[in-house]
Amino acid sequence: MRIVLAAALALIALLQPAAAQWPERPVTLVQGFGAGGNADTIARVIAGPLSTALGRPVVVEARTGAGGNIASEYVARSRPDGHTLVLLTGGHAVSAAVYRRLAFDPVEDFAFVSTVSVFPFVVATRADGPFASLPDLIAAARARPGEVTFSSVGVGSTQHLTGEMLAQAAGVRMAHVPYRGGTQPLADLLGGRIDAMVDSITVTGGAIRAGTVRALGVTSAQPWPGLEAPTVAAALPGFEVVSWVGLAAPAGTPAPIVARLNAEVAAALEQPEVRRALETLGTRPSGSTPEEMRRFVAGQVAQWRRVVEAAGIERQ
Predict the structure, then answer these.
(1) Per-residue model confidence as pLDDT tens digits over 226-238
(2) Is 120-234 a domain of CATH 3.60.10.10?
(3) CB atoms inside a 10 Å sphere around CB 17
(4) What is the CATH number of domain 2-119+243-311?
């Protein structure tokens, strides 16, 4: 992390005159999911230190729907002047695999800045429900094909595809219930309107700690620090999904601005209070260079396309 920060600061020193006037006004950080969800919360965690470093407010704006694609399209079509950014999630790469056509290119239409953090998902149900374990949920889905429901933050989201992968791995059929993100899936889980949810620790962690929600499994290969839950792989050997969030701007954003943003994100991720906030949300701080993020996202797109084809998931 410190090597990345030092390299970014050195580049800024060389390019400083070109970015001297930026930012000229508040910067908008767009995220594509509901209030209180993983993307919204992480966007606000990172917007605070960026506002201080840039000397202008970084305002988080939600443009929800389509698994984050509405936000991505909006930013891809925005003026590339560094005043409009997007917090991308793992669903950005998943969408490229699930949708036949997108209104933007998931790699070429963005100037990638830096990854921010990585995290697993949790398969959860309400604590007073009928499922005491993931095998219980799988057994119910096997007995009642297509009737056991699971939520995600939208069609084509990583949560959606993770749930479908789980069903494929278990050899069962479950019904997907998409939401726009935020805390509504949790409310409906507690209200008995859905059987299970696939979401981040950001959304599920508080209810798990409060004892109202039971974590049936975490999707990382190993148990996740701070979460008392078995791995999904304990029931379905080999199963693993770890997602990510990162910052990007429209393609064509001047390189000095991207370099400045990269350096400020790296600096923010070194701040103890930022690291604590991200870790409390169940994520692990993880920065990168712009080029590393670009290669990573391209690799994720290719990986999820292979998963969709292998699982026989119909493209939207």
Answers:
(1) 899 999 999 999 9
(2) no
(3) 8
(4) 3.40.190.150
